Amino acid sequence: MKHNIFLTYSHEIVGVAMKWLVQQHFPLSTIGEAQNFQAALNDLPKKKYDLVVLDAEIGDSTHVLGTVKHIKSISPQTRILIFSELDEAVYGPKYLAFGTNGFLPKKADIANIVLAIKTALRGDVFLGKRKDKSLPSADYQKNIDNPFYALSKRESQIAELLVTGESLTEIGGKMNLKDTTVSTYKKRIYKKTGAKTISDLIAIWKIFR
């Protein structure tokens, strides 16, 4: 099913990772994005979004709660999922009380991030501590989704060097390979992981490693 999803994020690497996850699990969706509070306010009214993933760190709590109210005022049907590094036990109830569809900790595993988005899109409320025995375990889900499992041993070694900032020449020197050979491996790694840039690869690496 096609959805219009708007992502906000305080750090670019978080935005890249979240966008990649949405593209993988909700491939028909249209994605809007903003990295700061003002951009979010400017862009949100331009399109009717089914879901807004609102990063609580793009502004102080007053700004975030104000944004929640603003979204509700211009589009009551839009679901809102709070994405935050704050303590869920302390801040979760606060945001839920303002009519959001859930509080998602940034340390959440992949299975819960996907579940939270699915739950919010249905119009239900995601509760991070809720246990649903019908769901596969987080480790099982992570193993299924992990694109690095598709890499060969040599590709995995090169991928690890790439995300640590090594150049093709440096990698070639360490592994006794030509630059062109390393470049070929890099292309294979990008294809298998779905990365288009080194920033994408780093973001995906952080999720699964």
Per-chain topology:
Blueprint: E1 4-8, H1 12-25, E2 30-34, H2 37-43, E3 51-55, H3 61-74, E4 79-84, H4 88-96, E5 103-105, H5 110-121, H6 138-145, H7 153-163, H8 168-175, H9 179-193, H10 198-208
Parallel strand pairs: 1-2, 1-3, 3-4, 4-5
Number of strands: 5
The helix-and-strand class reads alpha/beta
Radius of gyration: 19 Å
Q: What spatial form do the alpha-carbon principal axes imply?
A: elongated
Major sheet: 5 strands, parallel
Uncertain residue ranges: 130-144
State the share of residues found in helices, binned by percent. 40-55%
Distance between the termini: 30 Å
Query: Please, what is the average pLDDT?
Result: 82
What count of helical segments does DSSP give?
10
Estimated share of beta-strand residues: 5-15%
Strand order across the biggest sheet? 2-1-3-4-5
Following the backbone from N to C, one meets helices and strands in this order, namely EHEHEHEHEHHHHHH
Structure notes:
- With 209 residues, this protein is of the alpha/beta class.
- 52% of the residues lie in helices and 11% in strands.
- It contains ten helices and five strands.
- α7 crosses α10 and α8 packs across α9.
- The longest helix is centred in the last third of the chain and has 15 residues.
Spell out the key features of this protein.
single chain, 209 residues, alpha/beta
Please outline what is shown here.
This protein is of the alpha/beta class. The protein contains 10 helices and 5 strands; from the N terminus they run E-H-E-H-E-H-E-H-E-H-H-H-H-H-H. The chain has a 5-stranded parallel β-sheet with strand order 2-1-3-4-5, with helices on both faces.
